[in-house]
Design the sequence.
């Protein structure tokens, strides 16, 4: 009996089996590969988003979230210059609009995520000037006052709108210390480097060293909306959209509410 055809058949079957197994192993490895998403987000969101990431990664352990926190204006410039960012969360619509007009956003990914308020804060232990409202910032005993840089910091833009609406911005501008982001304003007030400052309500909520003395009327500034979107050049568009979707889930909403944010829409 000629065994050659039989041996050849067995060899072919064995090779085919090993090829199929090998392909399945490659596919399985690919599906389980770790993905890293870089999220550039407004400085005012860092505490809430860090907690959101922990919850997210319990459900999606193969996706690592890396944050880049700064003023929305600074982040916008970084993205325009090609920074490797997958998702952007701005503290206002203006900077997201800039990226949208330049066709930098992933189509259909932009959504309004959160809302916020701006408040006037003073050092908790040393409010020697007894500041109790925005108009009192014009008093001569208020030597230094801080807001974010209006050109690059959304909180600073909203603060300027409030003060301009009250017709006191130009009067107090000479004694205003402009900060690189809203967290720097908070730090200035906490350390007593300034007599008062304007920050988001969410920033004031996390500090035990300051107290809120006034909340700005919504009639005195534009609506404070935090939009989110994926960046078109992301290498992981599906993972980016998945994370954005998670930001609207109940666990994420609960976290945002915990830190004083309001859900948009």
Sequence:
């Amino acid at each position: 009996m000629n065994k050659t055809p039989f041996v050849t058949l067995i060899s072919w079957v064995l090779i085919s089996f090993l090829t199929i197994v090998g392909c399945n192993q490659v596919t399985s490895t690919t599906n389980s590969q770790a993905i890293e998403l870089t999220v550039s987000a407004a400085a005012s969101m860092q505490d809430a988003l860090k907690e959101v990431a922990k919850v997210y990664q319990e459900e999606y352990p193969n996706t690592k979230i890396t944050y880049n926190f700064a003023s929305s204006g600074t982040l916008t410039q970084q993205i325009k210059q090609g920074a490797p960012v997958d998702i952007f969360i701005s503290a206002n619509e203006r900077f997201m609009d800039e990226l949208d007009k330049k066709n930098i956003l992933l189509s259909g990914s932009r959504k309004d995520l959160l809302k916020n308020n701006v408040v006037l804060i003073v050092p908790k232990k040393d409010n020697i000037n007894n500041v109790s409202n925005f108009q009192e910032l014009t008093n001569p005993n208020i030597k230094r006052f801080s807001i974010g840089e209006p050109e690059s910091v959304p909180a600073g833009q909203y603060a300027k709108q409030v003060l301009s609406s009250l017709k006191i911005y130009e009067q107090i501008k000479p004694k205003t210390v402009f900060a690189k982001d809203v967290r720097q304003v908070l730090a200035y007030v906490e350390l007593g480097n300034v007599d008062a400052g304007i920050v988001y309500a969410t920033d004031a909520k996390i500090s035990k060293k300051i107290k809120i003395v006034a909340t700005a009327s919504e009639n005195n500034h534009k609506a404070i909306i935090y939009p989110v979107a994926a960046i078109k050049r992301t290498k992981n568009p599906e993972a980016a959209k998945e994370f954005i979707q998670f930001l609207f889930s109940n666990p994420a909403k609960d976290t945002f509410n915990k830190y004083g944010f309001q859900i948009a829409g």
Notes: Residues 118-220 form a domain with the D-Maltodextrin-Binding Protein; domain 2 fold (CATH 3.40.190.10). The chain is about 40% helix and 20% strand. The CA atoms of residues 171 and 198 lie 16 Å apart. The chain has two domains: 35-115+226-263, 118-220.
